[in-house]
Each structure stands twice: as structure tokens, then as C-alpha cells.
Design brief:
By secondary structure, the protein is an all-alpha fold. The chain has 3 helices and no strands.
């Protein structure tokens, strides 16, 4: 498969995941290792939980006005 096709598929996958509220764990790991190598990387489960809590609020408490 040509590289441009792989890149396009990757962008489409990332967009679809973000549309349903699932950030890309692999992109997070790449960013963390490239920019914050001195800090630990969350596991996939920790990452998902942190993103869900950030979006919907921890312990049933929302982080938005409405």
C-alpha cells in the first residue's frame, strides 16, 4: 500500500475515534515519548479512564455548566 494511502487511512481512523470520544492512545504514547520522555506513560486502561473522567467528570460530577 502506498505511504500516502496509509497516511490518509491513519487520519481517517484518528478522526473517527475523536468523533466518538476515543482519543488515539498510540498518538499519545508517541507524543509522550517524544516530548516528555522523563515522565511515565499511562497504560491503555489508565489513558482511557483519564480521558473519560476529563470528558464526563470524575465520580459523576460534570466539569461543565450544563
Amino acid at each position: 500500500m502506498p505511504e500516502t494511502k496509509k497516511t490518509l487511512i491513519s487520519y481517517i481512523k484518528e478522526t473517527l475515534l475523536l468523533m466518538v470520544g476515543l482519543p488515539d492512545y498510540d498518538a499519545y504514547v508517541r507524543h509522550r515519548l517524544a516530548r516528555h520522555a522523563d515522565r511515565p506513560v499511562m497504560s491503555r486502561e489508565e489513558f482511557f479512564r483519564e480521558r473519560q473522567e476529563n470528558r464526563y467528570g470524575a465520580n459523576g460530577k460534570t466539569n461543565r455548566c450544563c
